[in-house]
C-alpha cells in the first residue's frame, strides 16, 4: 500500500499468493451479505477491496480486478454447471469467453461451503425429532383456557399452530403468518403451555433488533434480547473476553492454592462471577427459544443459534413472515422452510377492521395485481404528480392526528421522509406545540425543540432511562427539554413513559425527527391508519406489503406518476401509469432465496424444454442458413452475398427451414422459381421470404421436432452441438413424462377430471405426457390449468402447439365416448380445431 503512493503497480507485480489472499477476502465479504452470487458481484467487491491500489494503466487495473474475481470464483461453489462441451475449432457464432454461447460466464451462480453447511444445519434441526415435548393433556388444557390479555381466545388456526409446535418434538419449528394473523397471540399461548410443563422462565425470546426484542418481552413477559447481542456474549468477542479473564483468574488461583489472603478471595469471587455471567448467555435443557421476525435473521446467525440449542437440549422456534422484510446479510432460510412445507402457517388475518382488506392484503403479499382493483374500488389509492401525492399523504396523516387517531407516514426514500418531517415540524411550530427557539441539531440535518417527536436510530446500552432500560434503535420519544448550547435533550419514551436524557454526541449521530419513516423501519408498527408515498422503483413487493399493513382501520397508497426530480416528461407516452408502477412493484420480489433452493431451481431449469428448444432453434437456424446459402449458390451464386446482407435474411432462413420440414422438394422448387424473377428486385431476400411463406400458409402445419427434424450441415462444430442438445432433449422428455405419470399435481387432477373415465390407459398416458411436455416447453410452472394461461394472438408457434395438444385430447376423448362435456373448455372441440375455435381455458 505504501508503495502504491510512490510507484503505481503493474499487473506483473501481483503474485499468485497475493491474488489468492485478496480473492478469499473478496469472497468472504460477498458471502457475508448474500447466500448466492455471480461474477459481477465478485467484480464489484474486488473493486471495493482494491480501491486504494493505484495501477500504472487502466489495463493493469482491469487485469488485477479480473484476476482477483476469477480466483474468487474458483474458491466458490458453483450452483449451475457449464452444460456443453465446446467442439474443437468451433467458430465464433458458437463461442463466448472460451465456453459455448449457451454457457454464458456471467450467468453462473455461486455460493460457498460455509453457506451450504449452515443451511444444512438449520434444515437438519427441522428434521431432528429429539427436542422436548409438552404432554398432550397439558398442551390441550392450556390452549383451551388461554385468553390473550384476559379477553381474546385463540382463533382456530392459532390453536392448531400452537399445538403443532408443542407436540412435534422437532428440534426446530417455524410458525409463518402474514401481517395481522396474531403471531404474538399464538406465542403467548405457547409460552403458557410450555411453562406449565417445564416451569417458569423456560421460554426466552430473541429478535433481530433490540426494539423488536423489547416489544416481544413486554408483550409476553419474558426475558428477551437481540440476536447479535446474544451471539456476541455467548460465542463472540464478549464470551472470548470473559473466558480470557476467567482463565487468568484460574491460573492465578492455581499458583496460590494454599493462600488465604483477601486477594485470593477476590480472585475466587471474580471467577464465580465470570462463570455466572457466561452461564447467563447460554441455553438450558427443556428451554423454548423463540426467534421473532426470523426472516430478518441471517443464515450464519440462525445456524449458530441452532447449534447452541441442540447442544443444550433446547428447542428453537422461528416466527415471522418471509413475505415481509428479509435479512440484510445472507438469508432466505425462513422462506425456504416455508416453501418446503416445513412450517406451521397462520392464515386468518385479524388486524384489519374491513373484511375486504384481509383478503386483499394477502394478494399484495403474493404479488397478485388483482388486489389493485380492490384497493382502488375502496378509495385507498390516489395517484398524480409527486409533490401532490406527498401533499395528500401529509394532509391525510394530519387529519388523523387531529381526530385523535394513531397514524404513520411512510415513504420509500430518505429525501421524502425528510420533506414530510420538515413539514410536520413547521406546522407544529405554527400551532405553538413545538419550540423553534431553543433547539438542538439532529442526525438528519434538522433541529429539535421542546414538543418535537424524535426517534432513536442506534442501540446504546450506556444510555439508561428512568426505568433502567437502555435506548434502542426505533424508540419513539417526545422531547420535553433541550440542553441549549450543550446539545442534549430530555425526552419521554412513548412506549413506556420513562424519561431519558440524551447527550449531544448521541443526538447528533443517532436521533431523527419521528413523524415519518421509511418502509423498512415501519415493520413492527401497528397504528389506526397508514399513509404510504410510492415512487417508481423505490419499493420491492415485500416493502410495499409491510407499508400497506400497518393500519388497523385503513392503509392508503399515494402513487407518484413522475420521478421527484423530473419536471415535464420529454415523451408523455413513455411515462408509466400509476397502475403499471404498482404492477412493476408487485413483480419486484426482493426476498433472497437459500443457496440450496437456488441450486435446485437452477438444476430444474437448466434442461427445461423451454431453454433447450431455444438453444436448438439457434443451432438449427445456423444450419438452415448454411443449407439455403449452398442451395442458392448452386443456382444463382451472384445473389448469395446480397441475400445474406439483407435484413430479411433471418426471416427467409426460418421460412426455408419450416418449408423443408413440410416438403423439401417443393421448397426447393419455390426457391428456384423465385430465383428466376428476383434478380432485379430491390430486396431479393424479402421476395424469397414472401414466396416461401405463401407456400407454408397453403399447406397443413408441420411442427419442427428436434428428435426427428433432418438437419443438413457441413460444419462439424454445429453438428456436434446439435447432437448434445438433442441428447439433452431426449433425457428431459423421458424425465418429464415419467414424472407426470407418477406425481399428483393440481394441473393433472384438473386434466383427469375433464377426461372421460373410460379413456384407454395408453391414451391417458399419452395425453398426460403430452400436456406435461407442453407445460415444460412453454414454462407453465404454477398454473392449475393444464395448458396454462391463454397464449397471445401474436405467439403463433405456441398457438399452433396448443391446437395440436387440444386436438390430441379431443381425439382421445372421442375414442372413449361419443361426446364428453368438458368443464375447462368454453367451446367444445370441433373435429378439425383451428386457432380460433379451440378451448382456450385449457
Number of strands: 26
Strand order of the largest sheet: 9-8-10-11-7-12
Whole-Å distance between the termini? 66 Å
How many strands, which pairing sense, and closed or not: the largest β-sheet? Answer: 6 strands, parallel
Global shape: globular
**If helices are DSSP runs of H or I spanning 4 or more residues, what is the number of helices?**
30
Nearest-integer average pLDDT: 88
Kindly state the percentage of residues in helix. 40-55%
Contiguous uncertain segments of 5+ residues = 822-842
Rg calc: 34 Å
Structural class, please?
alpha/beta
- As a percent range, the share of strand residues is 5-15%
Give the key terms:
single chain, five-stranded parallel β-sheet, globular, 842 residues, six-stranded parallel β-sheet, alpha/beta
List the helices and strands and how they pair.
Elements: H1 2-6, H2 16-33, H3 39-49, H4 58-75, E1 77-78, E2 95-96, E3 99-100, E4 110-111, H5 113-126, H6 136-145, E5 147-148, E6 152-153, H7 156-168, E7 172-176, H8 183-198, E8 203-207, H9 210-220, E9 224-226, H10 227-234, H11 237-255, H12 262-280, E10 288-291, H13 299-312, E11 315-320, H14 333-339, E12 344-345, H15 355-366, H16 370-377, E13 381-384, H17 386-402, E14 407-411, H18 414-430, E15 439-441, E16 447-449, E17 453-456, E18 460-464, E19 470-471, E20 476-482, E21 489-493, E22 499-502, H19 504-510, E23 511-513, E24 516-518, E25 527-534, H20 541-547, E26 551-560, H21 578-587, H22 595-606, H23 609-635, H24 640-645, H25 649-675, H26 684-697, H27 716-742, H28 746-754, H29 761-777, H30 796-816
Parallel strand pairs: 7-11, 7-12, 8-9, 8-10, 10-11, 13-26, 14-24, 14-25, 25-26
Antiparallel strand pairs: 1-4, 2-3, 5-6, 15-16, 17-20, 17-23, 18-19, 20-21, 21-22
Amino acid at each position: 500500500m505504501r508503495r502504491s503512493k510512490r510507484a503505481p503497480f503493474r499487473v506483473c507485480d501481483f503474485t499468485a499468493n497475493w491474488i489468492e489472499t485478496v480473492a478469499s477476502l473478496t469472497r468472504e465479504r460477498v458471502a457475508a451479505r448474500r447466500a448466492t452470487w455471480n461474477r459481477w458481484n465478485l467484480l464489484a467487491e474486488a473493486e471495493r477491496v482494491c480501491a486504494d491500489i493505484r495501477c500504472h494503466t487502466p489495463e493493469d487495473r482491469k487485469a488485477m480486478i479480473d484476476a482477483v474475481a476469477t480466483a474468487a470464483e474458483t474458491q466458490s461453489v458453483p450452483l449451475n454447471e457449464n452444460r456443453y462441451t465446446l467442439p474443437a475449432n468451433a467458430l465464433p457464432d458458437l463461442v463466448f469467453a472460451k465456453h459455448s454461447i449457451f454457457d454464458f460466464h456471467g450467468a453462473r451462480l455461486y455460493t460457498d461451503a460455509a453457506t451450504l453447511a449452515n443451511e444444512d444445519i438449520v434444515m437438519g434441526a427441522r428434521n431432528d425429532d429429539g427436542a422436548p415435548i409438552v404432554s398432550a393433556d397439558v398442551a390441550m388444557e392450556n390452549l383451551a383456557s388461554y385468553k390473550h390479555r384476559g379477553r381474546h381466545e385463540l382463533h382456530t388456526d392459532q390453536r392448531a399452530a400452537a399445538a403443532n409446535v408443542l407436540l412435534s418434538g422437532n428440534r426446530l419449528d417455524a410458525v409463518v403468518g402474514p401481517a395481522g394473523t396474531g403471531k404474538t397471540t399464538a406465542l403467548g399461548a405457547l409460552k403458557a403451555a410450555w411453562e406449565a410443563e417445564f416451569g417458569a422462565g423456560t421460554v426466552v425470546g430473541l429478535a433481530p433488533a433490540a426494539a423488536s426484542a423489547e416489544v416481544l418481552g413486554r408483550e409476553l413477559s419474558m426475558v428477551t434480547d437481540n440476536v447479535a447481542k446474544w451471539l456476541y456474549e455467548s460465542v463472540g468477542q464478549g464470551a472470548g473476553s470473559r473466558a480470557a479473564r476467567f482463565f487468568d483468574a484460574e491460573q492465578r488461583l492455581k499458583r496460590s492454592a494454599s493462600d488465604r489472603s483477601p486477594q485470593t478471595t477476590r480472585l475466587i469471587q471474580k471467577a464465580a462471577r465470570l462463570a455466572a455471567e457466561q452461564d447467563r448467555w447460554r441455553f438450558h435443557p427443556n428451554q423454548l427459544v423463540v426467534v421473532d421476525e426470523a426472516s430478518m435473521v441471517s443464515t450464519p446467525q440462525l445456524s449458530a443459534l441452532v447449534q447452541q440449542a441442540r447442544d443444550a437440549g433446547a428447542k428453537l422456534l422461528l416466527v415471522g413472515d418471509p413475505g415481509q422484510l428479509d435479512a440484510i446479510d445472507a438469508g432466505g432460510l425462513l422462506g425456504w422452510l416455508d416453501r418446503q412445507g416445513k412450517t406451521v402457517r397462520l392464515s386468518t388475518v385479524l388486524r384489519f377492521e374491513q373484511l375486504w382488506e384481509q383478503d386483499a392484503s394477502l394478494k399484495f403479499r403474493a404479488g397478485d395485481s388483482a388486489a389493485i382493483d380492490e384497493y382502488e374500488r375502496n378509495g385507498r389509492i390516489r395517484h398524480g404528480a409527486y409533490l401532490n401525492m406527498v401533499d395528500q399523504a401529509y394532509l391525510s396523516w394530519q387529519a388523523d392526528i387531529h381526530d385523535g387517531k394513531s397514524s404513520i407516514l411512510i415513504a420509500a426514500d430518505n429525501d421524502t421522509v425528510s420533506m414530510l418531517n420538515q413539514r410536520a415540524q413547521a406546522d407544529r411550530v405554527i400551532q405553538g406545540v413545538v419550540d423553534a427557539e431553543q433547539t438542538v441539531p439532529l442526525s438528519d440535518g434538522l433541529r429539535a425543540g421542546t414538543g418535537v417527536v424524535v426517534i432513536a436510530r442506534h442501540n446504546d446500552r450506556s444510555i439508561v432511562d428512568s426505568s433502567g432500560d437502555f435506548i434502542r434503535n426505533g424508540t419513539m420519544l417526545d422531547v420535553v427539554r433541550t440542553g441549549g448550547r450543550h446539545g442534549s435533550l430530555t425526552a419521554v419514551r412513548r412506549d413506556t413513559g420513562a424519561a431519558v436524557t440524551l447527550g449531544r454526541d448521541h443526538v447528533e449521530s443517532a436521533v431523527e425527527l419521528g413523524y415519518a419513516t421509511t418502509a423498512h423501519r415501519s415493520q413492527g408498527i401497528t397504528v389506526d391508519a397508514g399513509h404510504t408515498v410510492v415512487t417508481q422503483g423505490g419499493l420491492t413487493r415485500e416493502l410495499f406489503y409491510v407499508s400497506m399493513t400497518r393500519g388497523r382501520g385503513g392503509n392508503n397508497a399515494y402513487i407518484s406518476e413522475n420521478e421527484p426530480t423530473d419536471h415535464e416528461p420529454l415523451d408523455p407516452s413513455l411515462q408509466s401509469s400509476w397502475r403499471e408502477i404498482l404492477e412493476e412493484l408487485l413483480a419486484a420480489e426482493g426476498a433472497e432465496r437459500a443457496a440450496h433452493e437456488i441450486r435446485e431451481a437452477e438444476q430444474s431449469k437448466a434442461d427445461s424444454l423451454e431453454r433447450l428448444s431455444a438453444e436448438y432453434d439457434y443451432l438449427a437456424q445456423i444450419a438452415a442458413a448454411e443449407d439455403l446459402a449452398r442451395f442458392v449458390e448452386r443456382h444463382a451464386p451472384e445473389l448469395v452475398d446480397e441475400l445474406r446482407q439483407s435484413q430479411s435474411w433471418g426471416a427467409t432462413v426460418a421460412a426455408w427451414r419450416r418449408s423443408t420440414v413440410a416438403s423439401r422438394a417443393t421448397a426447393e422448387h419455390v426457391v428456384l422459381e423465385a430465383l428466376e424473377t428476383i434478380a432485379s428486385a430491390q430486396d431479393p431476400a424479402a421476395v424469397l421470404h414472401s414466396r416461401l411463406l405463401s407456400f407454408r400458409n397453403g399447406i397443413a402445419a408441420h411442427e419442427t421436432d428436434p428428435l426427428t427434424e433432418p438437419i443438413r450441415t457441413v460444419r462439424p462444430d454445429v453438428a456436434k452441438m446439435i447432437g448434445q442438445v438433442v441428447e439433452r432433449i431426449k433425457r428431459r422428455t423421458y424425465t418429464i413424462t415419467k414424472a407426470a405419470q407418477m406425481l399428483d399435481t393440481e394441473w393433472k387432477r384438473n386434466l383427469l377430471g375433464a377426461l372421460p373415465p373410460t379413456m384407454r390407459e395408453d391414451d391417458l398416458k399419452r395425453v398426460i405426457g403430452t400436456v406435461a411436455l407442453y407445460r415444460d416447453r412453454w414454462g407453465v410452472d404454477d398454473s392449475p390449468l393444464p395448458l396454462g394461461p391463454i397464449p397471445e394472438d401474436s405467439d403463433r408457434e405456441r398457438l399452433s402447439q396448443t391446437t395440436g395438444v387440444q386436438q390430441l385430447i379431443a381425439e382421445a376423448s372421442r375414442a372413449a365416448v361419443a361426446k364428453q362435456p368438458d368443464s375447462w373448455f368454453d367451446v367444445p372441440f370441433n373435429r378439425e380445431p383451428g386457432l380460433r375455435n379451440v378451448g382456450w381455458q385449457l
